[in-house]
Amino acid sequence: MDFPTNLGDLLDSGYRPKTVREEIRANVFAKLRAGEPLIDGLFGYQDTVLPELERALVIGHDIIFLGERGQGKTRMIRALYELLDEWVPVVEGSALNEDPLNPILPSTRDHLNQEGLKAGVAWMSRAARFSEKLATPDTTIADLIGEVDPIKVAEGRYLGDADTIHYGLVPRTNRGIFAINELPDLPERIQVGLLSALEERDIQIRGYKIALPLDILFVASANPEDYTSRGRLITPLKDRFGTQITTHYPEIVEDEIAIMTNEAKLPSDLVIVTPQPIPLIIATMAQLARHHSSISQHSGVSVRASIAAYEAVTAAAIVRSVRNGESLVALRVTDLEAALPAFVGKIEVESLDPREGSKIGNTLLRHAIGAVFNQVYGNQDATGVVEEVNQSPLEMRVDQPASDYQTLLARYPELGAFVGPSPTGDELPCYIDLALEGLVATRRLSRRTTVDRMTFGPDRG
């Protein structure tokens, strides 16, 4: 694009300065009028979190997101820069992204006065106006606010001179959005250093108060558990945030599935068939885990657990299809065992026994399979299948080729009648597995597994 490159051309273009909050407000209004979502790719927040975020941005509040891990806090924060204008002019060479028509440093004003209409103008993209910092115990005031530059002092400048400072992340995000993740992890003395920047929009370094009318939208995230464990958010700083938005995990299975399937990183060069029961079982398992008495609900059960489980199940199906020389990858219920290491690794079990996590994972999986089995086959009479398998135990390989399932149905006609004609082709093995595993989960059949074989037979109680 042909942008003005000096102050004279910028004035001729009719440019008028806007604050960050004015930019964001105008762009939020544009999205609301167009009926577009404020942030793309979020599920389950349409009636809770997003309306609160809209109101906070419209009124110009600094925001803190409060919620457990894996609730999309960082994702929302990183998406906010898209509500800024695509490009803004800055004084060429300015360390603080100063507006050519509203400079804040004395040296910049002197420069503009000297150069006049020929003063250079650069253009800054919205992505470059977003800064993010993960709060860690080793974070310093110099990192966030800045520090006196000894070289500039040696050149003869005074300590209280704004040009003596090597500025940190906060001032360098002037005219943008500054985000700090896990804010309670920041040492309290560093939190105190943010107070002036948040409230007065000036900075203090080594006892010198330097008036800089910084134009910044502050956004932070925090985990409620951190208030009392790793650290805490000091009350004066918490009070500076205009809006506190509490996030939450998906409240319904459909939202969990939408997030899981949208966020999972699956190979794009493979044809992958995912029958409906697979993501439904994984999402149900996560929902059950969020109410399990032996799982720490303070730490939460992140949606990342569902995503990792879904990816692990897909990986198991890929390995099986490659071994069998199949042209596509079709997920099955028996692949779900592969989800447990990924899922259990992302939950915190309240037990000193390291084996307890695997036991809980197996229990959750069995209950989830049983719940989905009841949804799909709950209205059907399974007596014929149970009697058929009791009389002739059904044996199959763990990595059974898809082509062998038709032979299986020929040997077990009651099983074929129970599954019905609707699941066909590549999805048929998944539904056959669901019928058998569901009868095991509901204690009408048993399953014995060896290294490479599974045997379904009478339930022994």
Structure description:
The chain is of the alpha/beta class and 461 residues long. The chain has two domains: 7-246, Rossmann fold (3-Layer(aba) Sandwich), CATH 3.40.50.300; 253-458, no CATH class. It contains 19 helices and 16 strands. The protein is elongated.
Coarse shape: elongated
| Average predicted confidence as pLDDT | 88
Low-confidence parts lasting 5 or more residues at pLDDT below 50? none
Strand content: 5-15%
- In oligomeric terms, what are we looking at? single chain
| Percent of residues in helices | 40-55%
Number of strands: 16
Strand order of the largest sheet: 4-7-10-1-11
Number of domains: 2
CATH topology of the largest domain: Rossmann fold
Q: CATH H-level name of the largest domain... which superfamily?
A: P-loop containing nucleotide triphosphate hydrolases
N-C termini distance: 74 Å
Q: Mind telling me the C-alpha Rg?
A: 30 Å
DSSP summary: helix tally: 19
The major sheet is characterized as: 5 strands, parallel
CATH architecture of the largest domain: 3-Layer(aba) Sandwich
The CATH class of the largest domain is: Alpha Beta
Content-based structural category: alpha/beta
Topology, pairings included?
Layout: H1 7-12, H2 20-34, H3 49-59, E1 63-66, H4 73-79, E2 87-91, H5 106-115, E3 121-125, E4 130-134, H6 141-144, E5 146-148, H7 150-154, E6 165-167, H8 169-172, E7 176-181, H9 188-199, E8 203-205, E9 208-210, E10 216-222, H10 235-240, E11 243-246, H11 253-263, E12 272-273, H12 277-289, H13 303-324, E13 329-330, H14 339-344, H15 356-377, H16 383-391, E14 394-397, H17 404-411, H18 413-419, H19 428-441, E15 445-449, E16 453-458
